[in-house]
């Protein structure tokens, strides 16, 4: 969402959307190194996600990531923590169904920040479409496949479930859908065919010895048709 007269934020391209996991990256310094490498490989957006970090740890890690991402022109959003997103001057936030409601999150973030919402069902996508215009920029849809990166993840919906939700979202006028959950480079052409505008990943990048090559493989797979 953009408002005339306010400074433009970094453009949000969700094609290869890296979500960070501090444990899989080997600690906060590993997160920074992974993000730097992934961006060099072709990651187009980054979400800072660490449900276990203290508020101060999360803000410090976010500031370190912004120092890497701003010069690269890659946006950073913060999972769940609107307060931390605002405190560090991130590009926006991503909320789940149990987090702060999107209308309140939008009010706090202002009109030009990026705001994403997780959905797992066509019903949740329809509810997202019914929010006031300008509330949401993106839906995170999944988990498409079984994931071990999120505690208490919902059941996997598969590529067919993703296709059903992207279709419902489009029909209802909801924001575009990025796929998430257990995704590997080989999945990306099918996700694209199912209507997703990108793939969000943790372990396909954070769990690998060469995150730059992993991100490059995802970027290449996203372009392939
Ligand atoms: N939300 C739904 S699945 C998931 C999140 C945060 C984890 C994705 O991680 P991975 O390793 O790509 O399955
Ligand atoms: Mg959350």
Task: Outline the structure in words.
This protein is an alpha/beta fold. Helix content is 41%, strand content 15%. It has helices spanning 28-41, 55-72, 82-88, 102-109, 122-129, 158-172, 188-193, 203-206, 211-223, and strands spanning 16-19, 45-48, 76-79, 92-95, 114-119, 138-141, 177-180, 198-201. The radius of gyration is 16 Å and the shape is globular. The two termini are 29 Å apart. Residues 1-7 have low confidence and may be disordered. It binds 4-methyl-5-hydroxyethylthiazole phosphate and magnesium ion. The site of magnesium ion (MG) has 4 residues, from loops. 4-amino-2-methyl-5-(diphosphooxymethyl)pyrimidine binds at residues 79, 118, 150.
Q: Which SSEs are present, and which pair or pack?
A:
Elements: E1 16-19, H1 28-41, E2 45-48, H2 55-72, E3 76-79, H3 82-88, E4 92-95, H4 102-109, E5 114-119, H5 122-129, E6 138-141, H6 158-172, E7 177-180, H7 188-193, E8 198-201, H8 203-206, H9 211-223
Helix pairs in contact: 1-2, 1-9, 2-3, 5-6
Bound molecules: 4-methyl-5-hydroxyethylthiazole phosphate (TZP) and magnesium ion.
4-methyl-5-hydroxyethylthiazole phosphate binds near residues 147, 181 and 182.
Shape: globular
Measured between the Cα atoms of the first and last residue, the distance is: 29 Å
**What level of helicity do the residues show?**
40-55%
Listed once per kind, the bound small molecules are: 4-methyl-5-hydroxyethylthiazole phosphate, magnesium ion
- The multimeric state of the shown protein is single chain
* Main sheet strand line-up: 1-2-3-4-5-6-7-8
The poorly predicted ranges are 1-7
Sheet/helix structural class = alpha/beta
Number of helices: 9
The radius of gyration computed from the alpha-carbon positions, rounded to a whole number of angstroms, is: 16 Å
Mean pLDDT: 95
Instruction: Estimate what percentage of residues fall within beta strands.
Output: 15-25%
Q: SSE order, as H and E?
A: EHEHEHEHEHEHEHEHH
Instruction: Write down how many β-strands occur, each being a DSSP E stretch of 2 or more residues.
Output: 8
Q: Give a quick account of the main beta sheet: strands, pairing sense, barrel closure.
A: 8 strands, parallel, barrel
């Amino acid at each position: 969402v953009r408002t005339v007269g306010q400074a433009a934020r970094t453009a949000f391209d969700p094609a290869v959307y890296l979500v960070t996991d501090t444990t899989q990256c080997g600690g906060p310094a590993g997160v920074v190194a992974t993000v730097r490498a992934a961006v060099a490989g072709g990651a187009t957006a980054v979400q800072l996600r660490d449900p276990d970090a203290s508020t101060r740890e999360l803000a410090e890690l976010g500031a370190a990531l912004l120092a890497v991402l701003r010069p690269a022109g890659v946006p950073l959003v913060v999972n769940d923590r609107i307060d931390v997103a605002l405190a560090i001057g991130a590009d926006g936030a991503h909320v789940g169904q149990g987090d702060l409601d999107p209308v309140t999150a939008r009010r706090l973030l202002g009109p030009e920040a990026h705001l994403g919402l997780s959905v797992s069902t066509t019903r949740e996508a329809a509810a997202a479409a019914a929010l006031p215009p300008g509330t949401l920029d993106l839906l995170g849809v999944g988990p498409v496949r079984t994931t071990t990166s999120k505690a208490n993840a919902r059941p996997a919906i598969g590529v067919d479930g993703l296709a059903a939700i992207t279709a419902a979202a489009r029909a209802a006028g909801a924001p575009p859908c990025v796929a998430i959950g257990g995704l590997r480079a080989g999945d990306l052409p099918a996700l694209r065919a199912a209507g997703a505008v990108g793939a969000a990943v943790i372990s396909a990048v954070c769990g690998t010895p060469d995150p730059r090559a992993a991100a490059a493989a995802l970027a290449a797979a996203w372009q392939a048709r």
